[in-house]
Design brief:
Blueprint: H1 2-23, H2 45-50, H3 56-70, H4 86-89, H5 104-108, E1 111-113, E2 118-120, H6 122-131, H7 144-156, H8 185-195, H9 197-200, E3 207-209, E4 212-215, H10 233-243, H11 254-264, H12 279-285, H13 287-290, E5 298-299, E6 302-303
Antiparallel strand pairs: 1-2, 3-4, 5-6
Helix pairs in contact: 3-7, 8-11, 10-11
Bound molecules: heme C (2 copies).
Protein name: Thiosulfate dehydrogenase
InterPro entries: Cyt_c-like_dom, Cyt_c-like_dom_sf, Cytochrome_c-type_DH
Keywords: Heme, Iron, Metal-binding, Signal
């Protein structure tokens, strides 16, 4: 009974955000799907509860995964060392197109991943978000928590074709990778002050109430670390364009989204777990990734990321991030 009650409050909190979104009086200009793309409608928790073909034991596991996804802070200090939950970036319970829906990983993996140069499983993809976006370390492969999370991802993928890669609304990159020529810290700072600071704070640290995260941090110790996907300026720009300010998705101009992404990613944050002791050298070593970030470059007279601060994390390298090759 207690469990059901908790779930209900989570669901109604999410629903009230959606009500705000549909009441918004600003234009919502989300991108259109391209012809021939697969468009997925991920099932909801209501669908799960109504689906009698799901064994009650499986339903429990999926619900556990949903609960971990929505409130990953329950793993704080063990696997999570910042103020994020999975749903903080994968909005709409990880179901929403243009908001980094997570189900495509369940239908397109195992596959080769450029970021770590080997074939990744769904568990390893999730582990990546733990290591970078959550500034933490993954639950062990095959553990109850991993099983629950993967089950939730796979449930969201229900009825989607396997190994279909032409997926509408996947990821956060529809603005393309080319940073506009007029990019400037000062312009980004102005967009931030006008549209974002009210929730995320002038210092980017977000806001908490009674110890709970209400508005997540964008930089500083509680934020995603220097290895996270969102440190790529293009990824942050598209995320922001389609999802921020909260409840006004699509309301910023493309250029304003780029400017503010540039500004946010010019601020300090916990160290990249791949750090070699020298941010410039680490940038070069992982240049395919870091050519899209400002890490290891000179910003306002300082080399970004040249520090030993791992935020609240008492360690630097997650032991599970080991390269794997098959001869
Ligand atoms: C700080 C933001 C952030 C947080 C928090 C976060 N992620 Fe991610 N996640 C990303 C980004 C960025 C990508 C890459 C999207 C892209 O390819 O453009 C991603 C990708 C993924 C993918 C692959 C999706 C695909 O299309 O293949 C999965 C699965 C995923 N995340 C799961 C999780 C889980 C589970 C958690 C919580 C443990 C989590 N993420 C937390 C930002 C985040
Ligand atoms: C009305 C409050 C509000 C405003 C205004 C707002 N945000 Fe957010 N933002 C949120 C919330 C809440 C989340 C987490 C979403 C969730 O948990 O459902 C979030 C998440 C984010 C994230 C991903 C998570 C993280 O912490 O890194 C980024 C990046 C972000 N916002 C950037 C911005 C930018 C840039 C602006 C201004 C253009 C902005 N936000 C305006 C409330 C707001």
């Amino acid at each position: 009974m207690k469990h059901n009650f908790m779930l209900l409050t989570v669901v109604s909190a999410v629903m009230s955000t959606q009500v705000v979104a549909s009441d918004a009086k600003v234009p919502v200009n989300l991108p259109e799907s391209k012809p021939g793309q697969y468009v997925h409608q991920a099932p909801t928790i209501d669908d799960l509860m109504a689906d009698e073909s799901v064994h009650p034991e499986l339903r429990k596991v999926i619900l556990k995964g949903y609960d971990l996804f929505m409130n990953t802070q329950q793993l704080r200090g063990e696997y999570v060392f910042n103020d994020m939950s999975c749903k903080t970036c994968h909005m709409g319970e990880g179901r929403m197109n243009w908001s980094g829906p997570v189900w495509p990983a369940a239908t397109t993996l195992p596959d080769y991943r450029g970021k770590n140069k080997h074939v990744n499983s769904l568990e390893e993809r999730i582990a990546g978000c733990f290591a970078y976006s959550m500034n933490g370390q993954p639950p062990a492969y095959g553990s109850d928590d991993m099983l629950a999370l993967t089950a939730y991802h796979q449930w969201l993928a229900k009825s989607a074709p396997v190994y279909e890669k032409n997926i509408s609304g996947r990821g956060f990159s529809h603005l393309g990778k080319q940073i506009p020529d007029d990019i400037s810290y000062a312009k980004g700072e102005a967009v931030y002050a006008a549209n974002c600071a009210i929730c995320h704070g002038n210092d980017g640290a977000g806001q908490k109430k009674d110890g709970k995260v209400v508005f997540p941090p964008l930089w500083g110790d509680g934020a995603y670390n220097w290895g996270a996907g969102l440190t790529r300026v293009f990824t942050a720009a598209s995320f922001i364009k389609n999802n921020m300010p909260l409840s006004k998705p699509g309301s910023l101009s493309d250029n304003d989204a780029w400017q503010v992404a540039w500004y946010i990613n010019s601020q300090e944050r916990p160290q990249d777990p791949r750090y070699t002791g020298d941010a410039r050298a680490t940038r070069e070593q992982f240049i395919d990734f870091h050519k899209h970030t400002r890490y290891g470059t000179d910003v306002n007279g300082k080399v970004l990321g040249q520090h030993d601060n791992t935020g609240e994390k008492p360690f630097l390298k997650p032991s599970n991030l080991k390269p794997r090759t098959f001869e």
